[in-house]
Amino acid sequence: MKGIEMLTCPYRTLMRYKRWSTDGLNAVLADTMDRFDEPHQILILRVLDHIQTVDEIFSHNLEARGHAYAVPRSAVLPSFETLVDKSRSIGAWYVDYTDRLTPDMVDEAIDFSFSNGAPARMTRGEMILHVASHGAGHRGNIGALLQMNGIQPNPDRITDFLEAERA
């Protein structure tokens, strides 16, 4: 990769990493969800739903279009299967979006409103960084819960992703 493409490469890498690590977490959860008691299952679903909702909100923000979210979660908690399907879809959207991202778009500031109605302004690059770090933090929350229940979390380090991509 040369020249101008290098300016958008980190964003493309982050979204590919996010998709990979989310898919890995969902695979571990699909195999182990029945090992959690109901309160922990609900907690996992709530965290996954929150990640998904924030991803959807910021996809709207990146396209400079409004969203209907008043809070960063669904009104009705979706099933695990629904959340997995939605995470695959939004993961593909972000990879496609960052593939089309040009250097002049990265620093373009966009006005939008947070889900609580507060006005905000961020660049496209800042929004992508937010989506990546937000998801990583909450995947870590679920990873800790997995470990507390004797379950090995999926590899979730960007170095693991890069190694897998280069293999």
From TrEMBL:
<dbReference type="Pfam" id="PF05163">
    <property type="entry name" value="DinB"/>
</dbReference>
<dbReference type="InterPro" id="IPR034660">
    <property type="entry name" value="DinB/YfiT-like"/>
</dbReference>
<feature type="binding site">
    <location>
        <position position="138"/>
    </location>
    <ligand>
        <name>a divalent metal cation</name>
    </ligand>
</feature>
<comment type="similarity">
    <text>Belongs to the DinB family.</text>
</comment>
<feature type="binding site">
    <location>
        <position position="50"/>
    </location>
    <ligand>
        <name>a divalent metal cation</name>
    </ligand>
</feature>
<feature type="binding site">
    <location>
        <position position="134"/>
    </location>
    <ligand>
        <name>a divalent metal cation</name>
    </ligand>
</feature>
<keyword id="KW-0479">Metal-binding</keyword>
<protein>
    <recommendedName>
        <fullName>Damage-inducible protein DinB</fullName>
    </recommendedName>
</protein>
<dbReference type="GO" id="GO:0046872">
    <property type="term" value="F:metal ion binding"/>
</dbReference>
<dbReference type="InterPro" id="IPR007837">
    <property type="entry name" value="DinB"/>
</dbReference>
